[in-house]
C-alpha cells in the first residue's frame, strides 16, 4: 500500500522545514512512532543509531512523536526530549495522533518501513528489530539500486544549536560526605560533582561522550562505608543506556564496571546470576534496602537486587508485565519504576508509567497513590482519588511522609501515610526528576529540563484541584463474546522459528479489570488465542505479552534471537465491533504487505 502522507503540528531537526513524502522519494524511510516517556521507545532510539550510521546516504529515519501523557503534547517539552536523548534525525509532532491512526499503530514503539518509491513494506512493534531491519534495508538497497529508484545523498536532518549550561538534563543526585552534591549529568554522559549550592563545578567523571564510561547515566547510590571499603568503590552508578552498573571511587576518580554485559535484557534466567555476565535493561535508580542494592530496572518493569560483595544479581520484584498489580513479591506488576527511596522498613517507588507511588514492606508491594497505566493528572486530596503524572523521583522524610518528583506536572508532591492525603508543596518546576534531602534537612530538587538544582523553600503547601486525564490513544473496538486474538509474527529476513528446544512462541494474556475477560486469560505456546469478552464490562485494557524464538538460517554458526513485545491495548466493547484483534509482533506477512 502507498504510505500515508506525513502531516503533523510541526517539525524538529529540519531547520524549520516541513517535510512531505515527496521530499523523501528515493530514500528508504523508517518511521519511528515513539513517545518520550516510554523506555522501550528510548531503547529503539539507540537501536536505530548504528543503522543511521551504516546506511546514512540511503536511509532516513523520521521520528513520529505520538504522545501518551498530556505533558508530552507540549511542543517545548518535545523539543527538550529530542535534545535530551540525542535524537539526530527529523521528528514530526503527531500531537493529535493523526499519523498514529493513519499507520494503524497500536503500541509504543512501532516502526514502519517505506521503500524509495513510497510504498509501505513492513511494520513492527516493540524493540529488538535492528538485525532484521538491517537485512531488510540491504534487500531494499539491492532491489532499488538495480531499478534505479534509490537516490543516495544527504538526508534532511539539520542539527539544532548547542546550548552552554553547567548541567544538561541532569537526572539524579546524592549528597557526598563532604557536603558537595554528585549529579548524573545525563545529556553530557558524565557525573558532575558540584558545590553544596549547586552553582559551581568541582570536578567531572567520565568522558562526556556517548558510548564512553557513562551514557545517559541516572541513579546514584553512596554505599555504606563498610561495604565501600570491601568492594573498593564508594558510589554505585546506574549507567542507563549502557545497561550496566559502574562503581566510582571518589578519592581517585577511578570508574569500574561491576554489573551488566552491556547487552539489553531479552529473556529471563532462573536464580541469581554472576553480575558481570548478566544482561540488564536501563537501570534507572538505586537504593540500599534489605542489606543489598535494589535496582529500578525501568526497561523491563522490574526491581532487581545486586550484591556488591558477592558480585551477583537477581530479580527482586516484578514479572516484566507492564501494569499495576500489588501483592507478595516477586509476582507483581510495575511499569517503568524510575525512583527509589528508603524510609524505615519501606522501600518507596516512583512507578512512572502508572503515575503511581508504591512501596514494598515485609515482602509485599502496595500502591499508595495511582490508578493505572492510562489514568493521570494533578489532583490533591485523599490518596485513592489523587493523581500524579509520570513521576520519576521520590524521597522519604524523617516524619514518615514522602516527597514525590511529579515530573510531568512540574511539581513536588507530598504523601502523608498518617492522613492518607496528597498535597502539592511546590509547582511551576521544569520536569523535576529527583529530590535530595540533605543531612542539614534542606530539600534540593533536580530540575532536569531547567538544567539546574533548585532548593525548595520550607513549609510551603498548596492544594491543587487540578485536572484528571486519560490517555487519548484511540481504543480498539471489539465485539462482546468470542474474540480471536492474533499475534502476527514473521521471522526477520534470514531467520526461522527455532523449535530445537521446544515450542518457539509464547503468549500471555490478562485484562484490567480482570472481569473484562470471561475466558482466555493465561499463558499458552500459540500466538492465536480465543478470548471471551464480558458484555457487561464496557471498556478496559488487554495486557498481552508475546515472544518468539528464531535462529539464523544458512549460517555455519547460527545465532539465536528472541523477539518480545508487551502491549497494553485499550479496548471498547461495542455490538458492531470486530471479533478479531490482530497485533503485529514483527514485520507483516506477505499477504498484508
From TrEMBL:
Every Thioredoxin domain range: 1-142
Keyword annotations: Repeat
One matching Pfam family: Thioredoxin_8
UniProt cross-references to Gene3D superfamilies, sorted A to Z: Glutaredoxin (3.40.30.10), TolB, C-terminal domain (2.120.10.30)
CDD domains: NHL-2_like
Protein name per the record: Thioredoxin domain-containing protein
Origin species: Paractinoplanes durhamensis
Amino acid at each position: 500500500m502507498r504510505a500515508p502522507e506525513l502531516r503533523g503540528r510541526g517539525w524538529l531537526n529540519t531547520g524549520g522545514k516541513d517535510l512531505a513524502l515527496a521530499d523523501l522519494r528515493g530514500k528508504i524511510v523508517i518511521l519511528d512512532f515513539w513517545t518520550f516517556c516510554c523506555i522501550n521507545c528510548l531503547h529503539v532510539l539507540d537501536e536505530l543509531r548504528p543503522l543511521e550510521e551504516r546506511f546514512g546516504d540511503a536511509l532516513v529515519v523520521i521520528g513520529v512523536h505520538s504522545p501518551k501523557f498530556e505533558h508530552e503534547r507540549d511542543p517545548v517539552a518535545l523539543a527538550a526530549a529530542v535534545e535530551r536523548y540525542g535524537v539526530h534525525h527529523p521528528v514530526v509532532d503527531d500531537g493529535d495522533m493523526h499519523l498514529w491512526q493513519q499507520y494503524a499503530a497500536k503500541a509504543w514503539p512501532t516502526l514502519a518501513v517505506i521503500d524509495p518509491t513510497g510504498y509501505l513494506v513492513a511494520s513492527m512493534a516493540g524493540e529488538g528489530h535492528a538485525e532484521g531491519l538491517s537485512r531488510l534495508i540491504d534487500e531494499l538497497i539491492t532491489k532499488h539500486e538495480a531499478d534505479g529508484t534509490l537516490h543516495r545523498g544527504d538526508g534532511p536532518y539539520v542539527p539544532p544549536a548547542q546550548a552552554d549550561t553547567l548541567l544538561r538534563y541532569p537526572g539524579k543526585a546524592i549528597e557526598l560526605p563532604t557536603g558537595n552534591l554528585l549529579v548524573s549529568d545525563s545529556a553530557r554522559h558524565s557525573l558532575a560533582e558540584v558545590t553544596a549550592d549547586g552553582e559551581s563545578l568541582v570536578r567531572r567523571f567520565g568522558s562526556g561522550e556517548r558510548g564512553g564510561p557513562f551514557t545517559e547515566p541516572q541513579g546514584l547510590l553512596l554505599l555504606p562505608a563498610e561495604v565501600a571499603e570491601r568492594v573498593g568503590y564508594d558510589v554505585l552508578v546506574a549507567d542507563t543506556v549502557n545497561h550496566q552498573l559502574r562503581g566510582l571511587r571518589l578519592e581517585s576518580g577511578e570508574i569500574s564496571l561491576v554489573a551488566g554485559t552491556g547487552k539489553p535484557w531479552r529473556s529471563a534466567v532462573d536464580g541469581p546470576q554472576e553480575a558481570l555476565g548478566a544482561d540488564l535493561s536501563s537501570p534507572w535508580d538505586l537504593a540500599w534496602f534489605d542489606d543489598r542494592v535494589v535496582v529500578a530496572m525501568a526497561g523491563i518493569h522490574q526491581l532487581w537486587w545486586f550484591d556488591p560483595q558477592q558480585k551477583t544479581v537477581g530479580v527482586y520484584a516484578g514479572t516484566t508485565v507492564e501494569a499495576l498489580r500489588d501483592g507478595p513479591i516477586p509476582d507483581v506488576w510495575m511499569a517503568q519504576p524510575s525512583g527509589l527511596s528508603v524510609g524505615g522498613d519501606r522501600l518507596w517507588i516512583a512507578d512512572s508509567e502508572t503515575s503511581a507511588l508504591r512501596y514494598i514492606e515485609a515482602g509485599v508491594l502496595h500502591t499508595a497513590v495511582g490508578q493505572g497505566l492510562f489514568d493521570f493528572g494533578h489532583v490533591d486530596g485523599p490518596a485513592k482519588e489523587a493523581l500524579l503524572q509520570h513521576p520519576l523521583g521520590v524521597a522519604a522524610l524523617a516524619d514518615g511522609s514522602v516527597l514525590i518528583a511529579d515530573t510531568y506536572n512540574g511539581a513536588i508532591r507530598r504523601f502523608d501515610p498518617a492522613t492518607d492525603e496528597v498535597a502539592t508543596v511546590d509547582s511551576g518546576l521544569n520536569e523535576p526528576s529527583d529530590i535530595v534531602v540533605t543531612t542539614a534537612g534542606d530539600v534540593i530538587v533536580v530540575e532536569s529540563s531547567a538544567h539546574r538544582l533548585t532548593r525548595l523553600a520550607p513549609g510551603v503547601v498548596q492544594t491543587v484541584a487540578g485536572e484528571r486525564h486519560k490517555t487519548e490513544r484511540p481504543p480498539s473496538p471489539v465485539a462482546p463474546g468470542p474474540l480471536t486474538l492474533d499475534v502476527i509474527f514473521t521471522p526477520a529476513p534470514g531467520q526461522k522459528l527455532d523449535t530445537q528446544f521446544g515450542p518457539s512462541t509464547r503468549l500471555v494474556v490478562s485484562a484490567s479489570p480482570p472481569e473484562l475477560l470471561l475466558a482466555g486469560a493465561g499463558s499458552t505456546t500459540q500466538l492465536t488465542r480465543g478470548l471471551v469478552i464480558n458484555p457487561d464490562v464496557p471498556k478496559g485494557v488487554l495486557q498481552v505479552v508475546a515472544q518468539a524464538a528464531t535462529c539464523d538460517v544458512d549460517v555455519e554458526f547460527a545465532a539465536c534471537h528472541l523477539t518480545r513485545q508487551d502491549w497494553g491495548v485499550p479496548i471498547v466493547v461495542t455490538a458492531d465491533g470486530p471479533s478479531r484483534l490482530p497485533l503485529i509482533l514483527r514485520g507483516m506477512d506477505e499477504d498484508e504487505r
